[in-house]
């Protein structure tokens, strides 16, 4: 889209740098007089996050041809051009951000070029197009430099886009969302696109669970150059998988998939990619039932680190079943689901709570954000959620005995959590039994979202978060200066997205304000069309140059805007049953499409001065439950169903805030409320 910088440094740049923007026979010449430390730099801006292989059209080159390198960066902030930047990266890989461990990881010196890509040498006969041999999974900026004296004439630079390989039209979304707030609309699509950037073939990953001991693994060995050509074992190599991030770690993680799955189902409907990902993870289950939380980073990796991610796998399969009715959930993956859940249940100790450190030497300690062996509210809420969800799948499978057992375990667990992890004085959930005076965001967010918290405690604890955690860029993990917290104070997208969504569950419209603060802020920064892995307290990316700025677990608002604001939510597998319950939250209208295995659900609503109108298309072989805020008079398809504060038709109920019509048959329906 543009040339961001053309810096001759110790060499020269001749001709218009903008000649590199299009192939037209005009060139810009880069001439180097030394090594990469003095090479001229030409930086191009693709206008937003993209992914793929760089293509450089070369018209001519000196007889002694210098090596041509491309450096990639997701943001201008961490594009290494100043001396000492990114731990000294400028001397090795000018124009790059850091995508690899351990060279240049925050706080460590950059010791070798672990990030630039070397293009093949220019052939004897020019012009020719040189293609990067390795894809870069996420970048906005590409910087070209030379590694020795000589000159190169560059006619054009482009990228062969490689992400989302199963989606021929990146804008051809099966689902969509629009509303009266254009910022929220941009947030919905940025979330969808973030997950598209994270979707790629399982032969282009960094993590590796292959059984071959000689297979390359990640983190890299000293001196190793950047590459993304490892294989996710057990996955169909012809079908895409969903990775945690485009730039890194380029590996499926079950915690990330808990957000990425619903985003996928609601936007691109790339069910095949999610199925392939979950299939690979299910098949790496260990003999004791534990499901590792990611595609194993090295072939010899073992242990049970991050027990919470074992539970996220159960949640991922449940969501896949709920949105798609894929028979694999109750078939091929059933042993993996029950084995993973039973492994976690065995970690409940005499306190009645789970603490994964009790497992043994390799624990299971550690979560999405920090390492802890404590009896955490977050992990216990995750276990409670997994028990209830698996019970629902067991009933659908006809295993009522197993469902009853899981429900009984969940009930006992809830009693223990409410007795030992609720702080009634503060009105918030504790970090853990061991740290009762710390009240982190994730404790409340997951206690509420899992359904563990009773309505009064849900409202009180969410109010506590708003009073104590909210800052200019969202909701903090813990208030600044908290003593004894297991995590530093920053903005973490997984619990933040969960908190925003949970607020709608208690009819708290401030969920939209939280989305605007955190996700609206990110859209105003680089790369401008995808969401970040995390945000520091000062508003910068949370892991400095290492931060992934297209990280799928940050895309929860896409789900919340469809499920909560538009209001379309599945309640039966594959949307056999679903609810449409809008939450206007100050908006005047919203409309959207939700793809389902039984056909598209379309919904639109408008909140006007005279009343509320909801229009819904219910697909065949489904049953809808429609709801609008309570009004004096409510009609469905012109027939009065609510008047004078009571139902006037069968299957109509109210909770005081909404009027519900149950059992709505397939077809086009209009539900209207007048004041």
Can you walk through the features of this model?
The protein is of the alpha+beta class. The model has no long low-confidence stretch (mean pLDDT 95). The longest helix is centred in the middle third of the chain and has 21 residues, at 400-420. It is built from 13 helices and 28 strands. Helix 9 packs antiparallel against helix 10.
Dominant shape: globular
Q: What is the β-strand count?
A: 28
Question: What is the percentage of strand-forming residues?
Answer: 15-25%
Helix content, binned percent: 25-40%
Count of helical regions: 13
Average residue-wise pLDDT: 95
Keywords, please?
single chain; about 675 residues; alpha+beta; 8-stranded antiparallel beta sheet; 13 helices; 28 strands; globular
Short description:
The protein has 675 residues and is of the alpha+beta class. The chain is 26% helix and 22% strand.
Strand-helix topology:
Layout: E1 2-7, E2 12-14, E3 28-32, E4 41-61, E5 68-73, H1 85-88, E6 117-118, E7 128-131, E8 136-146, E9 150-161, E10 176-179, H2 182-197, E11 199-200, E12 241-242, H3 254-266, H4 271-282, H5 307-324, H6 334-345, H7 377-396, H8 400-420, E13 422-423, E14 428-429, H9 441-449, H10 455-468, E15 470-471, E16 474-475, H11 493-505, H12 510-523, H13 556-566, E17 568-570, E18 577-580, E19 589-594, E20 601-607, E21 611-618, E22 623-629, E23 633-636, E24 639-643, E25 646-647, E26 652-654, E27 658-664, E28 667-674
């Amino acid at each position: 889209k543009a040339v961001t910088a053309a810096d001759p440094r110790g060499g020269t740049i001749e001709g218009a740098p903008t000649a590199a923007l299009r192939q037209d026979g005009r060139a810009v010449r880069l001439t180097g007089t030394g090594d990469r430390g003095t090479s001229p730099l030409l930086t191009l801006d693709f206008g937003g996050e993209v992914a793929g292989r760089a293509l450089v059209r070369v018209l001519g080159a000196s007889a002694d041809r210098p090596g041509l390198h491309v450096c990639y960066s997701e943001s201008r902030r961490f594009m290494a051009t100043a001396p000492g930047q990114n731990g000294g990266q400028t001397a090795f890989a000018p124009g790059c951000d850091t995508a690899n461990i351990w060279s240049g990881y925050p706080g460590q010196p950059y010791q070798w070029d672990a990030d630039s890509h070397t293009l093949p040498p220019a052939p004897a006969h020019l012009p020719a197009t040189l293609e990067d041999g390795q894809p870069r999974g996420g970048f906005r900026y590409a910087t070209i430099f030379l590694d020795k004296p000589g000159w190169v004439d560059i006619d054009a630079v482009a990228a062969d886009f490689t992400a989302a390989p199963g989606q021929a039209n990146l804008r051809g979304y099966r689902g969509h969302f629009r509303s009266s707030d254009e910022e929220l609309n941009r947030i919905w699509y940025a979330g969808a696109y973030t997950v598209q950037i994270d979707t790629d073939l399982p032969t282009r990953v960094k993590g590796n669970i292959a059984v071959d001991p000689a297979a390359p693994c990640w983190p890299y060995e000293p001196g190793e150059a950047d590459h993304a050509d490892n294989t996710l074992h057990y996955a169909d190599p012809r079908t895409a998988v969903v990775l945690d991030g485009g730039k890194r770690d380029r590996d499926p993680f079950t915690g990330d998939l808990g957000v990425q799955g619903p985003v996928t189902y609601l936007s691109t409907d790339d069910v095949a990619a999610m199925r392939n990902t979950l299939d690979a993870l299910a098949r790496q289950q260990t003999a004791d039932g534990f499901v590792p939380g990611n595609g194993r980073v090295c072939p010899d990796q073992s242990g049970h680190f991050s027990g919470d991610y074992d539970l996220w796998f159960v949640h991922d399969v449940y969501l896949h079943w709920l949105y798609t009715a894929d028979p694999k959930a109750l078939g091929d993956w059933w042993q993996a689901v029950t084995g993973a859940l039973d492994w976690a249940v065995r970690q409940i100790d005499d306190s009645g709570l789970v603490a994964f450190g009790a497992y043994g030497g390799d624990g299971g300690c550690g979560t999405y954000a920090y390492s802890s062996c404590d009896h955490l509210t977050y992990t216990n809420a995750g276990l409670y959620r997994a028990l209830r969800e698996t019970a629902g799948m067991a009933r659908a499978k006809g295993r009522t005995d197993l469902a009853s057992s899981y429900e009984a375990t969940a009930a006992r667990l809830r009693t223990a959590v409410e007795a030992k992890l609720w702080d009634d004085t503060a009105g918030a959930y504790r970090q853990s039994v061991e740290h009762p005076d710390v009240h982190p965001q994730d404790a409340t967010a997951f206690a509420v979202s899992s359904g563990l918290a009773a309505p009064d405690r849900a409202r009180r604890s969410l109010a506590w978060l708003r009073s104590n955690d909210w800052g200019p860029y969202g909701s903090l993990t813990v208030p600044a200066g908290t003593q004894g917290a297991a995590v530093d104070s920053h903005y973490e997208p997984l619990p933040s997205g969960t908190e925003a969504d949970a607020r709608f569950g208690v009819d708290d419209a401030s969920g939209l304000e939280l989305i605007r603060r955190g996700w609206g802020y990110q859209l105003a920064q680089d790369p401008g069309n995808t969401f970040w892995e995390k945000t520091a307290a000062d508003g910068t990316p949370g892991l400095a140059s290492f931060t992934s700025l297209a990280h799928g677990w940050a895309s929860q608002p896409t789900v919340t805007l469809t499920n909560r604001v538009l209001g379309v939510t599945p309640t039966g597998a594959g949307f056999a049953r679903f609810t449409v319950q809008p939450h206007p939250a100050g908006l005047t209208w919203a409309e959207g499409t939700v793809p389902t295995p039984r056909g598209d659900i379309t919904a639109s609503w408008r909140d006007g001065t005279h009343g509320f109108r909801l229009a819904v298309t219910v697909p065949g072989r489904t049953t809808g439950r429609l709801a609008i805020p309570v009004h004096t008079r409510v009609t469905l398809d012109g027939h009065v169903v609510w008047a004078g504060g009571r139902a006037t038709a069968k299957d109509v109920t109210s909770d005081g805030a909404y009027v519900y019509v149950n059992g709505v048959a397939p077809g086009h329906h209009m539900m209207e409320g007048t004041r």
